[in-house]
Design brief:
Elements lengths: L2 E7 L4 H15 L1 H4 L1 E7 L4 H6 L7 E6 L2 E5 L5 H9 L18 H26 L4 H30 L5 H31 L1
Helix pairs in contact: 5-6
Length: 200
């Protein structure tokens, strides 16, 4: 199976611009090295930046057989090629646990990043296209968030009531009354027996 290398970058990032020529040369040599090389613009693909938990730019990941490793070496063409030729990636600890891009947690993180990008687009549509004031757009988004939260909460309560119905109050009260009556009857039955024993 083929190794993959990909770079997370942003157009406004100065460090990303410095590595660009080395990365292009690395991509041109990818066939000789039998690897796939790509790059991801985090401004266009926020979901991927969330899934790979990109906190610094540029970030380089190596992937093989579904195992991801973060490349932390020098970002020169020679070091990138040596990482593959000398199989240096075998000595690097893979991204494990919930940090792994293939984990459920990181899939959820990608969804959150997609949601934030969508909210930005909606805000831009409200302010630019519809001409709504910025604070008006914020108010609409806040009200929509509260309304969605209320609806989801109501749905969760209804599901809880359906799957785990509460104990009937009437049944609980009647069972308590029956228990009290039984206790009183047993006390009444025991008292004559106690009197007979004392008389003997």
């Amino acid at each position: 199976s083929q190794c993959s290398f990909f770079l997370s970058y942003a157009p406004w990032c100065p460090a990303c611009q410095q590595i660009e020529s080395a990365w292009e040369s690395f991509a041109r040599n990818s066939e000789q090295l039998n690897i796939a090389v790509g790059k991801v613009d985090v401004t266009q693909e926020p979901g991927l930046s969330g899934r790979f938990f990109v906190t610094t730019l540029p970030t380089i990941y190596h992937a093989k057989d579904g195992v991801f490793r973060r490349f932390r070496g020098s970002r020169t063409l020679e070091d990138l090629q040596d990482y593959i030729i000398e199989r240096k990636w075998e000595g690097v600890e893979p991204v494990a646990g919930w940090h792994s891009p293939s984990s459920i947690m990181m899939h959820g993180m990608a969804g959150l990043f997609h949601l934030s990008g969508w909210i930005r687009q909606v805000h831009s549509y409200f302010t630019s296209t519809l001409g709504i004031h910025v604070w008006g757009s914020y108010a609409i988004l806040i009200l929509a968030t509260l309304l969605i939260g209320l609806i989801l909460g109501l749905i969760l309560v209804l599901l809880g009531e359906c799957f785990c119905p509460p104990k009937s109050r009437y049944k609980a009260e009647t069972s308590e009354v029956i228990e009290k009556e039984n206790a009183e009857l047993s006390a009444v039955e025991e008292s004559p027996e106690a009197e007979e024993l004392s008389a003997e």
